[in-house]
Write a structure and sequence with these properties.
The complex is a heterodimer of chains A (about 190) and B (about 190).
Chain A (H helix, E strand, L loop, with lengths): L3 E8 L3 E3 L12 H11 L2 E7 H7 L1 H4 L8 H12 L1 E5 L11 E4 L4 H10 L3 E5 L1 H10 L4 E7 L1 E2 L4 E2 L7 E10 L5 E7 L6
Parallel strand pairs in A: 1-6, 1-7, 3-4, 3-6, 4-5
Antiparallel strand pairs in A: 2-9, 7-11, 10-11
Helix pairs in contact in A: 1-4
Chain B lengths: L3 E8 L3 E4 L11 H11 L4 E5 H7 L1 H4 L8 H12 L1 E5 L11 E4 L4 H10 L4 E4 L1 H9 L5 E7 L1 E2 L3 E3 L7 E10 L5 E7 L2
Helix pairs in contact in B: 1-4
Classes of the chains: A alpha/beta (about 190), B alpha/beta (about 190).
Chain lengths: ~190, ~190
């Protein structure tokens, strides 16, 4: 059965972007990028909020220039091959292939999509991930922890949601980024 | 010059305790417990806020806590052997030895302490640590990241500061806790 996987690159204090929306410190180097590619290769569908989609749609047309490193070429390929669903009330039309727009994020429908999917489904963007985590439909969580404290901004993990986790794997990169992979623990009875 | 080292447990979303003051998700297993004892063993002085001091003082005042467990007895011995400074505007007396009370957090005094101390210093407690971070007194930050998201509570790291870090060490424990040791780079 396919899994719903939430991934984020966060500062040590848990932000995906600072108060101005900047996340320059989160840009993966080649080592991290290669590792992310291996993680994302099995992904069949990406679920995005509008903002995250507008950041990621870069890969539809870029990333495979001669002056760009191999892991970027590889990621562009992975991204273009996958289906995308963008959850947005305002986006009129997608600017990439294999992409459809949904007006509402309905956790039951999303879980049904995952259960029927032939391969894993990835969830990007803090707001969308927050809704999915709060609804209890996420199976796994990947966090890439960058060695920086940002002091405020958009939080990677949702406000007011309590989750028990099980650590599956950890990996340390040369840059000081640490990858933490968790599986959700079923909520305790009572 | 001695280093000032911040050590704390946090949830994956960065909280020391939840909004009700609970931290039941931080219970260390034996492996982590022994690691913490070895980690803090070399520290000569602990700097505490009042609340954290009061929750740690039991390691000296309550012998039952370490009875029947070598791990706990080792931790208690290490804790008792260190000097403590408690920052509190209200506390009048302390029940533990080697302990003095300071009314205000004076960055210059802490800087002088670092200059003259022979052994490294540890700071505990989110409020005190935030002041020490703001005054650029902290040299290393050691987090024990628990496998839980708690959604809301007291943050382990200060708001409003940008701090560049260098990862010095990372390891995982059997209970799913991950230890992240960073040096402050700026």
């Amino acid at each position: 059965m396919a899994a719903l996987i939430s991934s984020a690159i966060a500062s040590l204090d848990g932000y995906i972007a600072d108060e101005q929306g900047a996340f320059d410190w989160a840009a993966p180097d080649e080592e991290v990028h290669t590792y992310v590619n291996a993680l994302e290769r099995p992904i069949g569908t990406y679920l995005y909020g509008r903002r995250m989609y507008e950041t990621m749609v870069f890969w539809e047309t870029e990333g495979d220039g001669d002056d760009e490193p191999a892991p970027m070429h590889e990621y562009a390929e992975i991204w273009r091959a996958a289906d995308k669903v963008v959850f947005s009330r305002t986006l009129a039309a997608p600017s990439s292939a294999r992409t459809r727009i949904e007006r509402e994020f309905d956790p039951v429908a999303v879980r049904a999509l995952v259960d029927a999917a032939p391969s894993d489904v990835s969830l990007g963007g803090a707001e969308l991930a927050g809704q999915a985590l709060a609804a209890g439909i996420v199976d796994q969580l990947h966090l890439f922890v960058v060695p920086v404290v940002i002091g405020g901004g958009t939080r990677a993990l949702p406000d007011g949601v309590r989750l028990g986790l099980e650590l599956v794997a950890d990996h340390r990169f040369g840059s000081g980024v640490v990858h933490l992979h968790y599986r959700m623990q079923p909520p305790a009875a009572g | 010059m001695a280093k000032l080292i911040y050590v704390t447990n946090v949830s994956l979303d960065g909280f020391i305790e939840d909004e009700h003051g609970g931290f039941d998700w931080t219970e260390p297993n034996d492996e982590q417990f022994a690691f913490v004892t070895d980690l803090i063993g070399p520290f000569g002085t602990y700097l505490y806020g009042r609340r954290l001091y009061e929750s740690m003082a039991v390691w000296e005042t309550d012998p039952a806590l370490s009875a029947g467990s070598e791990l706990r007895a080792d931790f208690a011995a290490v804790w008792r052997a260190a000097d403590k400074i408690v920052y509190s505007t209200t506390l009048d007396a302390v029940p533990t030895a080697r302990t003095r009370i300071e009314r205000i957090v004076d960055p210059d005094a802490i800087r002088e302490l670092k200059d003259t101390a022979e052994r490294d210093l540890m700071v505990g407690g989110a409020n005190l640590a935030a002041q020490a971070f703001a005054a650029q007194l902290i040299d290393e930050c050691h987090l024990f990241v628990g496998p839980a998201v708690i959604g809301r509570g007291k943050p382990g790291l200060p708001g409003g500061l940008r701090i560049d870090l260098e990862l010095l060490d990372e390891r995982r424990f059997e209970n799913g806790v991950v230890y992240l040791r960073h040096r402050i780079a700026n």
